[in-house]
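Sample log: GH3 auxin-responsive promoter family protein.
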Amino acid sequence: MAILGSIIKGAIDLRDSLTAESSPVKEQQEVLQTLLKTAQDTAFGKYYGFSKILESENVAKTFAEKVPFFDYHEMKEQWWNQTIDGLEDITWPGKPSYFALSSGTTGKTSKRIPVTDAMIQAIKDTGTKQVGALANFDLPTDFFEKEIMMLGSSTDLSQRDEFLEGEISGITASTIPFWFKGYYKPGEDIAKIDDWDTRVATIAKRAKQWDIGALSGIPSWMELMMKEVINYHDAKTIHDVWPNLQVYTSGGVAFQPYEKSFRQLCNRDITVIDTYLASEGFIAFQQRPETTSMKLVTDGGIYFEFVPFQPEFIQEDGSISQDAPVVQLDEVVLDQDYVLIISTVSGAWRYLIGDTIAFTDIDKAEIIITGRTKFFLNVVGSQLSVNKMDTALREMETKFDIEIPEFTLAAVKINNEFYHHWYVGTNGSIDEEEFANALDATLKEANKNYSVARGKALKGVKVTAVSPEVFYEWNGKNKKKGGQVKMARVMGEEKFEEWELFAKEQ
């Protein structure tokens, strides 16, 4: 038995046994108090009277009453632009060391989100908690001797004025602790390669030099990397190249749409652990194997609030109305979709991150990601969330014995009638009309609002099947391959026309 592996596993087991049962609600109260005290003398803290809020009987309620919701553009225009210009103590004491670039699913223009030293430390602390949670997954001792392939964006950060900037995966990888560098692959030299295709080709060439036990990254890009490694070595599965691969840490998007195609690249089962690391912070991670839900990091420098995800509160651009009701962690209910609102040690305040979540276990503060506020399809009252779309497509995978890792759709007018036009990414062969009828029937059965819409203004469903590669090339054309880039699940009419032209040319 490997000595180092025994030491690491023993330390994790001991840490797990010594960790006291926490109270997520109490932790959140303490986080809010700390955030307000730390930032009370900033320009933002003075403007919104943080010192007065701290003196109130109900700090959380007063905070929600006095400070409005902010989306990225409002936060940037009203406050972060001053930080970008070099001013100190704007929304957080001092200046941030980094800016995280996040184009995400929104287009070519990158958001610039401040990342403070306090946030870097919070992310590291949460990463340590996640490693500690591995004690719950009954992994063999020798797993802790293996190397970890972290596939994110380039760690070659750009200097812009006095700040370093890059995607959050590149920032965090560039600041990993020294003791972890021996385990980290593909290593600093390869990780600095900015061009995705070149970086992946280099990984493929060197793959057999490494004893990879775990993978970490966004599923779509991880699949492409695995296929490149398999093809380069003329292998049948990834385990022919990395026989000791046992764990995949997913992140950025829900893993379920990719599960079937992902597992076909393996010749045995691997443990999949979900994480939720956004440009704004490390929000949640899967803590135990009995569930695919993730535990909110309630003691990690982020204070959470939740707005019920209902059409009357959602603006056309995905933002929320200022009069939308908000609840704290001790007021949430199961199986209700909520818009996630965060306040953080990077100086984001009552910030709309753009994701929707639902609680699966309130006592443990465990959640699933259910979609994006911008990807809520409510044309003619259909009220389709990404989670409902995903669930319907998983049924289609079973019914038609295919894999559908990617999709997008839009509400379009055909002969003056509304249709939902789906593009599904699959290498399988399907009858598009038969598939459309089956998908329509599944959505009618599972979603009352959709069924009502189909009986009124929504005329029908149209399906076009294309290779999943078309989606990846679209992302490469419009944004950048790899990193935090994700496919837009719902498109507006103008963007969908661009997409259709692109898809037809492939």
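Observation: The first helix runs from residue 3 to 18.
Observation: The radius of gyration is 23 Å.
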